[in-house]
Write a structure and sequence with these properties.
The chain has seven helices and 18 strands. The chain has 301 residues and is of the alpha/beta class.
Length: 301
C-alpha cells in the first residue's frame, strides 16, 4: 500500500491516523505497514470511539488520515459540532466503502485532499488513485484482468466485467482470484506520469445469481448458452414479474436475427436453466456496458 499512499501525497514524517481495524482483519496492518515503509509515523487508532479520536487529533496533530470515507466525514462533522480542532488533517486515503462524487466534494470542502485505494484482505493494495484523478492505477505487484462474470473469460478493454487478480508473492501467491467486484480497463496511461494499467474503480458487485420460480439462475448458465450459440454476442437475462409470476426474457445481441435462432436460444435457455422464457434478438453493442449478465427488475416493478 506504500505506493498508493505516496501517490496520495503521504511523505516521510507525516503522522497518519490509521482508523482501519487491527482486530480480526488485516486492514489496519496493510495500511500501517505501507505508511511505515515510506517513513510515516502511524497512530494505530482503529475505528470508532469518535470522542477519543478527536482528543488524539488535537493532542498529536496527525497530518493524514487512513480509513473509510464515511468515518472521515463522521470525525470532521463531530469536530465541527463540538468545536474541536481537526484541521491538522490535510490529506487522506480512503477505502472499504464507496466514495461517491458528492462525498468527495464534501471532504474537499473541509480542506482534506482524499484519494481512493482499492484493496482486499487477501492481496492488500490492488489499485490506487493519483492526483490526476482519472481512474485507479493498478499496483505493480499484481496482474489484473477483467472477465465476464461467471466465465473467467477476459472481456475487451473498456467493457465492464469482474476483477480477477494474480499475485506471485512468494509467501502468499494467488492465481486468478475472482474478487466479485465490477470494473473496466481504461485506455491509455494516467496524466500523472504513472504508466501502469488503469481501471475505472469500483462499479458494483459481480455476483448476479438470482432465484426464479424457486430455481437458482447463475451467470455461468448464461455463459453456457453463449457457448452453444457462437453466432450471438453478449447475453442478458432480464427477470420480471408478470401476472404475479416470475418471468424471464433472454436478450441476445445478433447481427443476423431469425426466428429459427430465437427458437434455438429458447430451447437452450430451458435446457440449461430448466426454466422457460422468451427470447429477444437485439442489435450488436446495444446492451448496456455495465457488466450485468442477469438483471433482476422484480424489486422495481
Amino acid at each position: 500500500s506504500g505506493r498508493g499512499l505516496f501517490a496520495a501525497g503521504f511523505r516521510r514524517g507525516d503522522i497518519v491516523l490509521n482508523t482501519f481495524s487491527y482486530h480480526l482483519t488485516p486492514g489496519g496492518f496493510i495500511l500501517d505497514s505501507g505508511a511505515r515503509a515510506i517513513g510515516c509515523v502511524v497512530i494505530p487508532a482503529g475505528p470508532g470511539n469518535t470522542e477519543q479520536q478527536l482528543e488524539v487529533i488535537e493532542h498529536l496533530r496527525p497530518t493524514a488520515y487512513a480509513g473509510t470515507p464515511d468515518f472521515l466525514k463522521i470525525l470532521l462533522d463531530a469536530a465541527e459540532q463540538k468545536g474541536r480542532n481537526a484541521g491538522s488533517i490535510r490529506k487522506a486515503v480512503v477505502s472499504g466503502a464507496a466514495f461517491p462524487p458528492s462525498l468527495q466534494a464534501e471532504i474537499k470542502r473541509r480542506g482534506v485532499d482524499a484519494y481512493q485505494i482499492y484493496a482486499t484482505a487477501d492481496l492488500g493494495c490492488i489499485a490506487y488513485e493519483s492526483p490526476a484523478r482519472e481512474g485507479l492505477i493498478v499496483n505493480e505487484d499484481v496482474l489484473l484482468e477483467i472477465v465476464r462474470p461467471g466465465t473467467g473469460e477476459p472481456v475487451p478493454d473498456g467493457e465492464v466485467g469482474e476483477i480477477v487478480v494474480t499475485s506471485f508473492d512468494h509467501d502468499h501467491p494467488w492465481i486468478r482470484l475472482a474478487l466479485g467486484d465490477l470494473s473496466a480497463i481504461m485506455p491509455g496511461t494516467s496524466p500523472c506520469g504513472r504508466t501502469n494499467v488503469r481501471i475505472r474503480g469500483w462499479l458494483g458487485r459481480a455476483d448476479q445469481t438470482t432465484k426464479v420460480k424457486g430455481m437458482f439462475v447463475r451467470p455461468e448458465q448464461l455463459a453456457e448458452i453463449g457457448k452453444r450459440h457462437p453466432e450471438v454476442g453478449r447475453l442478458r437475462l432480464v427477470v420480471t414479474r408478470e401476472g404475479e409470476a416470475d418471468a424471464m426474457a433472454l436478450l441476445a445481441e445478433c447481427a443476423q436475427p431469425s426466428d429459427a435462432l430465437a427458437q434455438r436460444l429458447a430451447e437452450s435457455l430451458r435446457a440449461v436453466t430448466k426454466l422457460g422464457g422468451r427470447v429477444e434478438l437485439v442489435a450488436p453493442s446495444s446492451l448496456p456496458n455495465d457488466g450485468k449478465v442477469i438483471e433482476d427488475r422484480r424489486a422495481l416493478t
